[in-house]
Amino acid sequence: MRARQHLFVWIFLGIMSLCLGFILVTTGWFFDRFSILIQPGVEPAALINRFLLPVFLGLFGLRFLFQRTPARYLRPYLHLPVARSHLIRFFQATSLLSLHNIGPLVFLLPFWSRHVLGVYPLPGALAWLTGIVMLLVAANFANLVCRTLLARHERSFLFFLALLTALVYVDDLAGTRYVQTYSAHLFDTLLQTQISTLLLVLLLPVWTTLASGHLLLKQLRRAEEIPASTRRWSLPRFLRRGAYSPLVLLELRLIVRNRRPRHYLLISLLFSTLYLIFLLASPFTRGEVILGGVIGLFASGGFVLNYGQLMFSWESSFFDGLLVRPLAPRRTITAKMLLLQGSCLVLFLLSAPLFLWLKPALVPLHVAFLFYNAGITTVLVLFLALRNRQYVDVSRSGAFFNYEGFSAAHWLWFFPTAVPPSMLLFVMRDAPATGLLWLGGAGLVSLLATPLWITLFTHLFARRRRGMAEGFRRRRHR
After folding, report:
1. What pLDDT digit, counting tens, does each position of 353-372 carry?
2. Segments of 404-473 assigned E as strands
3. How far apart are CA 466 and CA 322, in angstroms?
4. What is the pLDDT of residues 6-22, one digit of tens each?
């Protein structure tokens, strides 16, 4: 049965990849028809040169979140009689085959063949394509540099990231568009075969390759792992009362004291603040309904979608010990439900001033999604978490996004969570207030039915907990 499920998932992902590849190839080949709609009278190459660098920066953000680093694959081979520098170079080379490098070329190669090659002199066309490839290689190894720096200097890196994000936002808000201007200058001079620009794009990947290799080697030579945080803290006394507060406090301590769950908390806070500013400040009109759904879902439900998916897996190292404690399953489920629902309220309060400042018209959407996330998203995510069987090492240091414990179901689960509210808002786009009322009302009804959901999840947990423990043990000892 499980083999059939995996086969279905791979077939589905294969079909989706083929469709996406066809769209990218077609768009690149017939880009001249789209450029007329975007900016008439401008050559396709001149138009796309303005946006290549901003697009690469955006793709670098996705690469930083999702691309796996060679450090994850190096450790099982360290006992072999092979020099570590050779292992690093081998896995650096294999990382170039990532979809993050191949995907942009699926669009850019047809574009280059149709709109650059034969239109501009051959040396300029080859220099332009070389610049594209070299920037992708540089981005690949720059991602390794950023992840390694983050693992060793977390606070400094996050401060620098916040500062860079603020500068890019100010550039966009002020209308100066320095990034677009520099992008146009960079690729226009490549088309003119300017030697200094070509040397720059050739030296950049060399530097990032050497820097990433040096940092990875230095990281492997560290004798000890970064110890887990031993900071002691507790909730205020009035919050420590009740039957569920100790369990909630225990989960919060797990988050704060361990690197990986703490990163999920940080990314949720960053999305609800810094990234939300970009989304709210953008002048979206045509895709306002869909984008509004995404904004509302993550603004108050980011922690649920990030951290909640791996609930119970976070405790896989000591899950057997939890099972033998005199703790009723209902208390465990209730505490986790309260933590997820409480996170929705906290993120709602943190992001509400941004909605009031940048997009006051979206405040009703923010309120409606508060009820939807607290009432429905938490239920869907906790139902998924009760199917977790994969071990997660919460103390492992390293990359910012370590996807140990994730399966295809975790990625596909986003669709039943995000698509229904977006589709409802799209269908009710002519009566948005009614759509938000239906959305918030459904969430409120589900929120009021929390005791019923807790009863259901308690039965599921009591029935599945031994299978979960067996899966955690089996995968831990592999």
Report:
1. 888 887 788 888 889 999 99
2. none
3. 11
4. 666 678 778 888 888 88
